[in-house]
Structure prediction request, 225 residues.
Amino acid sequence: FGSYPTTVGTPELRAACGRWLERRFGFAPQSIGAAQVLPVNGSREALFAITQVVIDRSRPGALVISPNPFYQIYEGAALLAGAETWFLNSGPGPGFAPDFDSVPESVWQRTQLLYTCSPANPCGRVMPLAEWQLLFELSDRYGFVIASDECYSEIYRDAPPVGALEVAARMGANPERVLAFHSLSKRSNLPGLRSGFAAGGPETIKAMRQLRAYAGAPLPLPLQR
Prediction:
């Protein structure tokens, strides 16, 4: 308690996060390295930080797609990063599914980041594998990053929900185009502990780590995508 904690957390904590991802989502043992995990003070911090890292202010009309209803940090992070928010409304169809086909081409072309939440708040809908695959195909086509808010991933009735990193590995997607965010707040009823982590491509995690260490550094930070 007499010294500041490290920016990246302890090696033991990063290793524990990686092992949990491997067990939960079926990765090979020791396949999630320390460079792919960043412990954070609850997922809220990281969900804000990823927008500050990803958004390129030099590109006019930067856009962030957010589900609607939405966690307010999605919109706030986009505004403070200098981007506009385009809300993808939950439709009246089964489970209040978002209609990705309704997004105009002009919106996809400006999109730099897309937030998604599965299981979703407030309806609890779980994204099926086919929908994840469509999302990754759109990411490859238009070059945006997927921020997958998975803080409810351990609250389910039957089969465990599929995760973004799991689908990305199956599809051979660019690992720098997706990050998953996990937290103890909802799944373990420990909001006061302020403990969570972000996981994804090592270059994106490196940029988030840099932002965390020097909050206020010139943005955007350079990323290799």
Observations:
- The chain has eight helices and seven strands.
- Residues 216-225 have pLDDT under 50 and may be disordered.
- Strands lie at 37-40, 63-68, 84-89, 111-117, 145-149, 178-183, 196-200.
